[in-house]
Amino acid sequence: MKDASFFTNPVHKWQRRYEALRASFVERLSTKDVASRFGYSSAYVRLLRHQFRHGKLDFSEPVPEGKTARYRVTNEIRRKIREGRSCLLSGGEITELLCEEGVEISVRTVERVLAEEGFPKLPRRTRLQMGLTVKGAKVPERSELVSIRKLTGKRFDCAGAGVFLFAPFLVQLGIDKIVTAASLPGSKAIPALNYLLSFLALKLLGTERYAHMTDHAFDSGLGLFAGLNVLPKCTAMSTYSYSLDAIHIFRLQQAFIAHASSLDLYDGNIINLDFHTVPHYGDESVLEKHWAGARGKTMKGALTLFAQDTETKLILYTAADILRDEADDQILSFLSFWKGVHRGVKPTLVFDSRLTSYPQLSALASQGVKFITLRRRGKKMLAEAEKLTEWERIHIPHEKRKYPNPEVNESTITPRGYEGLIRQVIVRGNGHEKPAFLISNDFAAPADLLVGNYARRWRIENGIAEAVKFFHLNALSSPILVKVHFDLALTLIADTLYSMLAQKLRGFERCDAPKLYRDFVCGKGDIKVQGGTVTVTYPQRAHSPVLRKVPWQHLPQQLPGCKGANLALRFR
Fold this sequence. Notes:
Mean pLDDT: 84
Number of strands: 14
Number of helices: 21
Distance between the termini: 75 Å
């Protein structure tokens, strides 16, 4: 029989806390006395008082210890639980289905019933294995074409909505005609145009590695940009890139440059050329070791060539998988390519001393092509340059140039392997310890123009550095491998698209791709499909007024990946 000791010496934890607080507030005992009576520390008593004052303690009558109040499950509910588990649904999913039918039941009760019915526990599964993404969206079984009519009335939240800013320029360039001219292959489910747009979407977003494309794998908005329900999976993208041979990629570049030239995007008078090593961890028997300037060492990789328009800083041409024995002839291959897409213009080629050899320079001169390059200097040449007395000071009108007034000495020489005379300009006082030896077959141009044109070669080095950093050219060692030459061709297209966008943004005409991405392209957006029109609404941002001033109504308002779909861009 219970007596007063039930209240003075409580056994249950909830009752001890209650009696301790009653002694503190009602009997007015000190904190030390309350702690001594109920076996608490003084600090814990003060904590209980604080929690009680702020309503953080619940003293409702608990379930008697030793007894469990079980939910009474009817035979009908048991039948539905069995049917749910037969469909491999988890306890939580079965609970959600029953709640939708008005049956309030806990997950623990469902699991108890399953155990009583003899069902074993399901193995732990990821949300992707259960057919759900992290955000709870349904995962489609495969990537496929979408119909605008079927999407009418639907809305999407797109994490990379900035790619839709490039859609008008893709239509302006005629991307569908470019794909047709290149004869790119497609699959039964995904045509070639949609594959190319899928790659471009990742390039334009500056995805660090292709292995990180899973971050956008379930984004329906990016899929709609490519004309698909979602972007293809990593394996499909990698397989497609390796299905393209050198002829496909050459025709793709040729068609793209031809269409871009028709829009007067290139100047074409002065073209810079340079090699770049892309680290690639492939078959050792195929890949050679080359000097990688970005890594500061010789390493195994794919040797690539870039050609850049000096005036616009746009990439004009790329080549990849170049062997050492083929390196000297690459300048002639580029010249053949350029003549095919830009007839009537003979450019001045600017490159360093290691790009080609003197016999190739003779071939350029025989075709009437002017060049500016460096001569490899030795100890004898440097000693002879120190003895020279006739130096002329020139001025190079370049902005922010630290040494704008170097000294030059001109002469004509006949290098071994070169047919005829060649002009040599020795430059000193240009910020380097040793003088530079410029050679050119242009005898009419003033010395300051020759030196100035070669000095602007830093532009292609900056362009390559930007491509390496933003367009992830040096990240090809990721789990998904994309064919190097195809990756370079995509970089060429993405670089041109960013330049076309910059020309429409007042005050940002000379900004590079990383700057434009941070201020305009990066960010979420709301996509709504209604009546054959895809409306992309961008949230209010600091640079929204600049985007609103762009005359979008004078640009093509179609979505290239979806036939017959109109595009409307809205900025809050």
